[in-house]
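Worked example 4.2. Below are the chains of a multi-component assembly; read each line carefully before continuing.
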Amino acid sequence: MREIFIGIDLGGTNVKIGCFDSNLKLVAKTSIPTQLELGPESIIDRTVQAAENLVLKAGLSVDNICAAGIGSPGPVDIDAGIVIATSNLRFTNVPLRQILSDRLGKPAVLENDANVTCWAEHVAGAGKGADDMVLVTLGTGVGGGIISNGELVHGLGCNAGEMGHIIIYPDGRLCGCGQKGCVEAYASASSTAARAAEAIKAGAQSSLKKLLDEKGEITCKEVFEHVAAGDKLAKEITQDTAKALAILCIVLLHTTGPERVVFFGGMIGAGDLLLKPIRKFFDQYIWTINKEKMELCFATLGDDAGIIGTASLAIHAREQGRLG
Amino acid sequence: MREIFIGIDLGGTNVKIGCFDSNLKLVAKTSIPTQLELGPESIIDRTVQAAENLVLKAGLSVDNICAAGIGSPGPVDIDAGIVIATSNLRFTNVPLRQILSDRLGKPAVLENDANVTCWAEHVAGAGKGADDMVLVTLGTGVGGGIISNGELVHGLGCNAGEMGHIIIYPDGRLCGCGQKGCVEAYASASSTAARAAEAIKAGAQSSLKKLLDEKGEITCKEVFEHVAAGDKLAKEITQDTAKALAILCIVLLHTTGPERVVFFGGMIGAGDLLLKPIRKFFDQYIWTINKEKMELCFATLGDDAGIIGTASLAIHAREQGRLG
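Applying the procedure described above to all two chains together yields the following structure tokens:
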């Protein structure tokens, strides 16, 4: 009988659902509105119903379903299967793995969304073949996941891989986390935009000034657009973002020593405009006694990373005999 | 039949050798002079002879020997069992695992010495019970080892865990590795002493000045002694060492998220004079959104860490079916 694994990517607006076979081949996918206001039990009910409909529409039976994986924002207690807290889903201590498993009548695994993305790129994307890799998510914040010896690293309180909060400039810019000088305080989309706005308000010349005056704010995307258009300040701001990320990569090299650091998220839309200076600063700041072959690259899976990663984690748990 | 595992700690001056049972209980130990000038084959010949004598003197037969582990300075290719290079043993590409296994007639494992110490503290010392831990060695340089998910992390080129070369002050003090602003450039014994000497030469008042004038140099131990005696500069220098190590701990917390960071090496002789300010700066610089329970502590095994760690790695490899 063909075995089907369900991958579920739980977001604040939509829930993405994918059905995969045991070789991680996509059979079918869909998405439903999250409707947060109805609460976690309703979200899972509707998700399971949609998953079962997918399976039926693919000409299979719900008996073909082996297991499911679900990814959630926020800190997650992996052993207990609980979402500890997530501001954008408004969940606190929700036993999401058990709820999913009960509704589906099959075993389930739960993982936080950054780790899911990391695992997805590891098994099917830019990190394929690298038993030691790191994923760095570049969006409003900076996060990520770490794989060492072919396994996700969870660490103390399942809080490993908070790469955005690695301190690179002690006593530097204040971060939302309460620390100073975090990677996130320089290199996130919001920090990149904020540094540009601050420089303009302090008197720097820039083609971004008009935008800032008109709208009262600028975005990271606009900073990158003005780099492409030749604006000097936008270029300096982007260089500092890239330098922060390059220093982060050196820190990672000397910690878990990944073969590859894979960047993921909205900011990678900037392409070479961002990747080239990251690589340049990495080459400039890295030690000279041992030229490592560590690769810095962009993720390849895009929006499907969540369903691929969660389905793959369910398959992986089955292979390791860790499914209930 | 009682199974014996040999642990070998290869140093530039002496080779320490321990015989352990399969529960890691020490049966007997000894040491022999390394005599580097005779080359690796002679070192291993004499080491194996000494190990076999130990076993015989303990009333056992060489048939009781199951396997051996050996720890070496320098980068080591774990999969190939080769010491790639080590300046203080003057080895280059020495297949140490095979040489040991051939002489002993039993399987062997090879690991670099910092990882061996990390593993020893993990199984029998200050890191016991912590499946995610980091060891930081504080000596002439700063090094270490990382355990995640209960296994040593080797990373790219077996070069993971080079904690001394994590950059904490980009564009800061030049490190011997070619980078600027490494932990090692601030917090090693030699950097701590060098920073004190530089400050005195630049005109700072200190009770260390007399020593520096007389000997032309000062040591880290002397800096610590003058802190205890109330010298203000010595205290400032030590605070900066502690701050660098505290920032390192925050970096580690946000990377692999260890339950415990264990400091090892000559500098921990300073005791609370060093540990207290490390903890103080850690509490001061760590994020406020999630007060982690990560422990910062000193190693407990001392000189026996090398033989305990190597014997334990041989036992561990046997348990995992990885011995030849």
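Take a moment to check your reading of the output against the notes. Chain A touches chain B through 51 residues (CB under 8 Å). Residues 232-253 of chain A form the longest helix (22 residues).
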